[in-house]
Amino acid sequence: MSSLTASGPMIAESSVARVPAVVGDLLRLTRPRIAVMILVAVGASCFVAAWGAPDAGLLWSAVLGTGLVAASSSAANQWLERDTDALMRRTARRPIPARRLAARHVFPFVALTGAGGLAWLAGAAGWSPAGWAALSWLLYVGAYTPLKRYSPWSTGIGAVAGALPVVVAWTAVGAPLGWRCGALFTWMFLWQFPHFMAVAWIHRDDYARAGLRMMTVVDRSGVQAGVHAVLGSVAMIPVTLAPAIMVRTQGGAWIAAAAIVLGGLMLGASFHFLFQRTLRSARLLLRVSLVYLPLMFALLALTTVLGSWR
Length: 310
Description:
Tetracycline Repressor, domain 2; mainly alpha
């Protein structure tokens, strides 16, 4: 009897001890590093859309709501890809394939974060940003994720989903859609090609093992991936020069200089990857892409804060 009565507290203590681990694994489902990049884009886009410092309440509503929806889409992606994740070295230790979280327990997290994010956006900023956020979620979870098994062109759909947070931010602060928003959206869309082609080359064996039809699996030479990286980098330069037209002389000069210098680095790293197609060249391109995006967004946001916009 004594052993039976002791088992209750022991089970309770074990359950309590697991809470931090479960919370940590739920956080990992959101892929925090990717989420941070998305939120940087959202915050900076709010500043650009508002021609300066946006309303603080709308800014935080856009960041929080988009962050929750992005967390939901990342978790849903891992829930849907749990079988293929188990076959890849880089994802086998994720919470679901490593069996630290049961797949049935992830769905409530997906539903709560997704519904919570959309409800927050709708209530605090309006139905338009909520609708754009819902579209981003649907494209990422409902189109990009399943299409990875069948076509390398899934990357393009994923790039649209990844660029839509710019539109969410834009509409959240009440700015009308126009060519300025289109320029930021296009820039974010194009950036994902050199970035993801580097990732796809580094993990091409994993993708092949899991049966995912990424560009570097369909074309094992890597030439097509290199071409896509170069084309994306080339197209980004004139797109990022567009804001220079909209700002005063000094601000425009800073943006133009950054677009040329940072864009040139991206283009150089993309050409290096195209001609070398090694792990080293792919990792270089990946690092450059991860530095390029936040720096450009930070400069755009800073320019608006300093009152350089017309």
